[in-house]
C-alpha cells in the first residue's frame, strides 16, 4: 500500500524502518541515499541538514547537502542565509512547519521576498522545516519539493526522522573544521571515479558532460583540500563522506 493513500500506522512503520536503517549507515552518502528513498514517496526531491551555533554572526554548518545542483553555492554566495524567512522562523519555533506557514511579516525584507522565487527556479516551491533546538544551537532538517503530498501524520514522521538523521550524522567520523559536505551529485561522481570509471564513463552514466564531471571533481578537491582524484577518494573515505 502506498504511504500516500495508506494509514498513519503504515507511515509510522515505514518511518521506523528508515530510522533503523540509519543505524548501519557508515557514510554521509549512505545516510542521504536512505533518507532520500523515504522522502521521495511524498514528492520531496531535495533536503539538507544544518546546524547553527548560538554565537553572534555564526554561519550554519552544512551537515548534509542533498539540494539541487547549484543551490547551495548560490545560497551561500548570494548571502541568503541572513534574509531567509524560513531560517528566521525556525529560530523562534520548535514545531515542524511548512514553508508557506511562515508568517508574512518575515517577507517585509525585500531580499527575503525574493528567496521563494529563487528557490522555485531550482524546482523547490514547497517544503517543510524541522527545527532541532539544543543547548549548543539549532539544527534544522530542510525538505524541498515542487509539490509534496500533505498526508496525515507526515509532520510527526519527519520530526522523528530528523532526530535520527542528526544522530546518524553525529555518529560518523568527525569532519574537520573548514571541510564542507559533498553534494549528492559530487558524491555520485566521486563514487564512480573511486570505482575505476573514467570521466567519460561517469559523464555517460550520469548523463552529464565531461566538462561538468571535471567541474564536480574540481569542487570536491576544493572542499576536501586535496590535489587529485585518488587523494580525494582517500580523504572522503577517511571523513565518512564516501563508502565503497
Automatic annotation (TrEMBL):
<dbReference type="GO" id="GO:0006355">
    <property type="term" value="P:regulation of DNA-templated transcription"/>
</dbReference>
<dbReference type="Pfam" id="PF03472">
    <property type="entry name" value="Autoind_bind"/>
</dbReference>
<dbReference type="Pfam" id="PF00196">
    <property type="entry name" value="GerE"/>
</dbReference>
<dbReference type="InterPro" id="IPR005143">
    <property type="entry name" value="TF_LuxR_autoind-bd_dom"/>
</dbReference>
<keyword id="KW-0805">Transcription regulation</keyword>
<feature type="domain" description="HTH luxR-type">
    <location>
        <begin position="175"/>
        <end position="240"/>
    </location>
</feature>
<keyword id="KW-0238">DNA-binding</keyword>
<dbReference type="InterPro" id="IPR016032">
    <property type="entry name" value="Sig_transdc_resp-reg_C-effctor"/>
</dbReference>
<dbReference type="InterPro" id="IPR036693">
    <property type="entry name" value="TF_LuxR_autoind-bd_dom_sf"/>
</dbReference>
<dbReference type="GO" id="GO:0003677">
    <property type="term" value="F:DNA binding"/>
</dbReference>
<dbReference type="InterPro" id="IPR000792">
    <property type="entry name" value="Tscrpt_reg_LuxR_C"/>
</dbReference>
<protein>
    <submittedName>
        <fullName>Transcriptional regulator, LuxR family</fullName>
    </submittedName>
</protein>
<keyword id="KW-0804">Transcription</keyword>
<dbReference type="InterPro" id="IPR036388">
    <property type="entry name" value="WH-like_DNA-bd_sf"/>
</dbReference>
